Amino acid sequence: MGPLTLAVDTKTSSKPHLDAPILKMQKKKPFASINAQEDSPFDFLRILFEGVIAGGTAGVVVETALYPIDTIKTRLQAARGGGKIMLKGLYSGLAGNLAGVLPASALFVGVYEPTKQKLLKTFPENLSAVAHLTAGAVGGIAASLIRVPTEVVKQRMQTGQFTSAPDAVRLIVSKEGFKGFYAGYGSFLLRDLPFDAIQFCIYEQLRIGYRVAAQRELNDPENAAIGAFAGALTGAITTPLDVIKTRLMVQGSANQYKGIVDCVSTVVREEGPTALLKGIGPRVLWIGIGGSIFFGVLERTKRLLAQRRPISDQQPNPKQD
Fold first, then answer.
1. Which of 28, 39, 55, 207 could link 316 by a cystine bridge, Cβ 3.0 to 4.6 Å?
2. 133: helix, coil or strand?
3. Is 249 left (phi over 0), alpha (psi -120 to 50) or beta?
4. Any idea what DSSP says for residue 259?
């Protein structure tokens, strides 16, 4: 299948393996983040369930830990010209945000993991990066249905437009209608689909390469370090998209910008090209640390869930390819 499997005894296998060079080098094949054997049947419901639990847990932990940095980043990006930002109420909107982060993170990983495994079983080994990119984008699309309304409410509370999540929901519906919850949806997808695809692809490919070089499983600090690097790099690359997304989401009913293109041209014309990099420091810090926590918790939770499986599900079945 490629990089998603554990070592297999070639004497018990009736089919040649694509990873023979790797088997000769280290007696086992590298696999991506999900702890599944090639010889196990594709158990969609189990992988979905474990992905939902692991993703929800990781999302809540990282959001709670890093919410103040995200608030500062949002206020920097929303400030026009040389406007100052407030450093009070850095946890404003956290409770309401967690109500969206939990199902969104659970849905993302719950979709990503089985999609990734299915694609890795379908694609040739040399296209594993394409499988990771595609699975990340698919997971992002699914999660966006929850992420976008959560992000709209969160960012308007962070910028002081509302004092509580219930008030935000009520006033957005009364002034803008249901579509107000999806303000900036296009720019959100423009930022998050590339971000999700690139971040998870970098993370998975680095883990595979590291495992081949080390000839062993990665420990928790190593998973966290790779997650931090993947997150920080992807965060820096996508900062301009994040600025545009923030401006569109916080404008409310004023409709200051007519769309993505108009927002970009207006920001560059009025504030200069460097305005598209506003908040890059907090963003890289936030996503770098967040990647470390998220992927560290994700892998740890998945490993704990795998240990709770029945013994028969943990052992390779030589009859399956």
1. 39
2. helix
3. alpha
4. S
Q: CB of 243 within 8 A of CB of 277? A: yes
Q: What's 276's DSSP letter?
A: G
With vertex at residue 186, the alpha carbon angle to CA 184 and CA 192, rounded to the nearest 5 degrees, is 95
- Residue 133, Cβ density class (10 Å: 0-12 exposed, 13-18 middle, ≥19 buried): buried
pLDDT digits (tens, 9 = 90+) for 119-143: 999 999 889 999 999 999 999 999 9
**Residues whose CB falls within 8 Å of the CB of residue 26, separated by 6 or more in sequence, listed in order:** 212, 215
Q: Record the tokens describing residue 307, joined without a space.
A: 């240990």
- Nearest-CA neighbor of 92 among 150, 147, 152, 160? 160
Using an 8 Å Cβ cutoff, are 32 and 204 in contact?
A: yes
DSSP class per residue in 159-191: TTS-SSHHHHHHHHHHHH-GGGGGTTHHHHHHH
* Token output for 145: 């249905």
Q: Residue 146 has which token pair?
A: 């929850």
Q: How many CB atoms lie within 10 A of CB 24?
A: 9
Measured CA to CA, the distance from residue 266 to residue 9 in angstroms comes to 62
Give just the sign of the alpha carbon dihedral 306, 312, 317, 319.
negative
Distance CA 182, CA 193 (A): 16
The helix/strand/coil state of 68 is helix
Residue 207 region by backbone torsions, left for phi larger than 0, else alpha for psi between -120 and 50, else beta: alpha
For 20-55, write each residue's pLDDT tens digit. Answer: 443 344 444 434 444 434 445 557 788 888 899 999
Q: Can you give the pTM of this predicted structure?
A: 0.69
User: Are 113 and 44 spatial neighbours (Cβ–Cβ below 8 Å)?
Assistant: no
Q: How far apart are CA 275 and CA 282, in angstroms?
A: 14
